[in-house]
Every structure is written in structure tokens, then in C-alpha cells.
Design a protein that fits this description.
This protein folds into two domains: 8-135; 146-198, no CATH class. Helix 1 (8-40) packs antiparallel against helix 3 (74-144), helix 2 (44-67) packs antiparallel against helix 3 and helix 4 crosses helix 7 (180-193). It is rod-shaped, with a radius of gyration of 36 Å. 83% of the residues lie in helices and 0% in strands. The chain is mostly helical. The chain starts with 7 loop residues before the first helix and ends in a 5-residue tail after the last helix.
Length: 198
């Protein structure tokens, strides 16, 4: 594969396009990470709720254990305190559910903010670069094998009507007669269009 053109103007544009694609991707990865961190900061209330619920459950659990030692009313008092322990567990579960929701939102938002811009780059920039690389590699191989007649034929089939009219002489007739000057001019034009030095 030939990734860059031989001619400086096209080479500069390709390097600039590649750097812009890398910068675009880098920018969106940074944005996605910052947004993910900002969303994860929202888990603080859930963490606080979970810790408070755990603390409440522990406190009521300890109180229920001590209440069982009280003669006569200890069992009923312990049962009442166990309901407080259960409420603490409910608070802990609610806090953990909030934390999981925030983490899940942060993950999916970060993924989307990376995937969508990256997909844009892969859909627009990458096919153009791959197409250039394939065409340039084939053109260079034909040049190195001195298959100028094939390059000239390809140039003939891809010339616009305006370029055909501006071409000195009749390029079709020159190609048919295998005129070396016409074939060389057409082949050079195809090589330049493919980003390869004639």
C-alpha cells in the first residue's frame, strides 16, 4: 500500500487530513472522558445514602442485639429495632441502585461520545485514504513494470470531456496507433492523478 502521494501539494493535504482526523478523535476522547468524570461525580449522593443506610442498619442491629438481653420486653423491643435495621438496608439498596445507574449512564455516555465521532471519521476519512492507497499502489506497480499503455487507457477512460477537448491532438487515435508521445502524456496524467510521480 502507498499511503502518501509523491507530489508535495497532495502530500501536504493528506498529512493535514490525517492530523485533523487524529486531532478530531483525540478531542472527542478527551470530551468523553471529561463528561464521564462529570457524570460519575453525581454518584456522591448515592454513596452517601448507601453509607448512611449501612450505618443505620448497623446501629439498629447492635441495638436489637442488646435489647434481646433485656428481661420480659427484650424480644418485642428487639423486633421493633429490627424494623429499623430493615429500613437501613432499604436505604443502602437505594443508594447502591443510584450509584449503579450513575455508573451505567457515565459508561454509555462516554462510549457514545467516542463512538459517534469516531464512526464519522471512519465513514468519511478512512474510505478516501484506503481508496487512494490502493490506486496509488497499483499505479506505482504499473509504472515500475512500464505498463504505460494500461495507464494511458485508464487515463482515456477517466478524462472529462473538457480534458479530452484540451488534449493536444486526438488522444484516442494516438493511443490506438500506440504513439509513444500520446501514451506517455496519458500515462503521466494518470500517474499524477493517482498521486504517483511519473
Amino acid at each position: 500500500m502507498k499511503w502518501y502521494a509523491d507530489r508535495p501539494p497532495r502530500l501536504v493535504w493528506q498529512v493535514v487530513a490525517d492530523l485533523l482526523a487524529v486531532a478530531w478523535t483525540w478531542f472527542w476522547v478527551d470530551v468523553a472522558r471529561a463528561v464521564g468524570d462529570a457524570v460519575r461525580a453525581l454518584r456522591a449522593p448515592g454513596d452517601g445514602l448507601s453509607q448512611a443506610g449501612q450505618s443505620l442498619a448497623d446501629t439498629f442491629g447492635d441495638a436489637a442485639a442488646k435489647a434481646r438481653e433485656v428481661p420480659l420486653v427484650g424480644g418485642k423491643l428487639a423486633d421493633a429495632l429490627e424494623r429499623g435495621r430493615s429500613a437501613g438496608g432499604t436505604l443502602t439498596d437505594a443508594g447502591q441502585a443510584q450509584v449503579q445507574a450513575v455508573e451505567s449512564t457515565a459508561l454509555w455516555l462516554t462510549t457514545a461520545l467516542i463512538a459517534i465521532p469516531l464512526a464519522f471519521v471512519l465513514i468519511t476519512w478512512l474510505p478516501l485514504r484506503l481508496r487512494f492507497a490502493r490506486r496509488a499502489a497499483v499505479a506505482r506497480r504499473l509504472r515500475d513494470q512500464e505498463r504505460f499503455d494500461l495507464l494511458a487507457l485508464h487515463a482515456l477512460t477517466t478524462l472529462s470531456l473538457r480534458d479530452l477537448a484540451a488534449f493536444p491532438g486526438d488522444p484516442v487515435e494516438g493511443w490506438r496507433r500506440r504513439d509513444p508521445g500520446t501514451i506517455k502524456a496519458l500515462a503521466d496524467r494518470r500517474l499524477r492523478a493517482s498521486g504517483v510521480r511519473p
